[in-house]
Design goal:
By secondary structure, this protein is an alpha/beta fold. It is built from 13 helices and 13 strands. It has 2 domains: 17-46 and 274-363, Aspartate Aminotransferase, domain 1; 49-271, Type I PLP-dependent aspartate aminotransferase-like (Major domain) (Aspartate Aminotransferase, domain 2), CATH 3.40.640. 38% of the residues lie in helices and 15% in strands. A hairpin with an 8-residue loop joins strand 12 and strand 13. Bound molecules: pyridoxal-5'-phosphate.
Length: 367
Amino acid sequence: MAITTPKYISELEPYQGGRPIKEVSRELGISAEKIVKLASNENPLGISPKAKSAIDECIREIHRYPDGNGYYLKLAIRNKFTLNPEQIILGNGSNDILELAARTVLSPGDEVIYSKHAFAVYEIVTKAVGGIGIKAKPSEDFGHNLDEFIKLISKKTKLIFIANPNNPTGNLIVRSEILNFLSRVPKHIMVVLDEAYDEYLNGDEKSIAFSWLSEHKNLLISRSFSKAHGLAGLRVGYGVGDKEVINLMNRVRQPFNVNLLAQTAAIASLKDDDFINQSRLINNQGREQLEECFREQRIQFIPSYGNFISFNLGDETKAMMYYQHLLENGVIVRPIKNYELPSFLRVSIGLKNENDIFIKYLRSFKK
Ligand SMILES: Cc1ncc(COP(=O)(O)O)c(C=O)c1O
């Protein structure tokens, strides 16, 4: 007899990530060293040298379980942002935090609001527990329209996801707009503010959302070590919220969800401001380089506050032809049809030489 599964599980579309270098190398017979992966918003600089030394040191200990409470990593986060460790929960990547939020607050049939072009994992974690995803109409520039969110709130709404900056569109919502929104959302609805790309923001652009927690106990801020910290392969992120909310989330968390190397590397990385500043600088320069190319090529792009840019090639066929041309020349970017932007591709911002290669093959496409 075949197993049974709820319809909301069998109807789920699995997450599609950027294509791995080795897979493309195998498939197209291009040597892995020649491939430029600009498909998963990773840090092209790699990781902080401090994190690297900490990993080398800690490797001797990996026969031990990690600290299931992540005491020292929470301490490092607390010290950096002046928080209480009870306000912090650690995740196996920030995706884990998004999922824990959904599993903590949702029952089948509850509604979750997110923007039409927002990060794909919101839909997956919602539907995986039988929640109903409600997509808010985007702003004209493909970003969040928080007034639309307010209109969609119903008795069944239990959770709202906001990405700031958003992936794949890169839009930023300004501080005053989020604060105004929070003051209008009923307090029993959890609002997850996903700040996976926060470290890439320049000074004044940051929302400084941690300081809002005392007033907004329904707010959960999610952060990642996968982006500017460069630890995507280790899987570590964290959530910050009211201690009672964190306490509830901890009940559904797996006991050892963040591995030993990830905790150790994250602690060291938090202490390396030079690395983060350098990563932001390289990203700012790369963004200018790519924007200049799009302008020169007369390709419409969405101005981005993250480490990626989505650009519009007019229609889906053209976008897939560009994608294939880039791929065959060893440049991996990301189609974003699954984000309801079929005529767009998304390119992660790389090092100057990687961006140069992307630009070379973007230009060589025969229109
Ligand atoms: C907006 C946003 N949130 C969260 C994540 C999840 O990142 P991770 O689980 O690697 O921390 C991503 C990854 O691309 C993202 O773009």
